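call fold(seq) -> tokens
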Amino acid sequence: MKKIQLTFVFILFASLGFSQSDFTDLNNSRLNKQRQGMLVLGTWALGNMAVGAIRLGHTSGENKAFQQMQIGWGAVNLGIATLGYFSTLKVDPGAWDTYQSVQEHYKIQKILLFNAGLDVGYMLGGAYLMERGKREVKNAEQLRGFGRSILIQGAFLFVFDLSLHSILSNDNKKLKPLLTQSSIGFAPNEVHLRLTLSK
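ret:
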């Protein structure tokens, strides 16, 4: 009887370890993709800031306001990209259990979809400022310049967030085999163990 119990425990822990290793690979893959995404965002931000700073002294009116807003958005995006990149470096992908791995996998996708909704709001806000700047108002040129920049930034972020979401969601299909390869269930006076020993 002791041999059966020891064999049962060994198989259980071996299968859970096998599963955890696969989740570690999945977590690593997601974190690498997030880092690449943050590098894209950071590059976009630095480019906007550099071009804006170069052109700022050579423009006036609407174009000057446009470059000012490009620099401002670039600084914000660079901050987000930097924080996002370094936060992925602090994570130990092997430290998460199955539940945490799945939770983190879908959490970032939900955040990206929420951000895409915000991006639509930015684009609408930019279009509103541009339209308002067509009227005879005191700061018409500034409104048009700011509006054009916000519209462009919102459009880029919309494409960026949806693209990164699409890249990350491609791994969703890898979750089902990992979640169904082994399972353990409990009922009154019963323990159910299901092991899949081949990939």
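Helices lie at 2-56, 61-89, 98-132, 140-169, 172-180.
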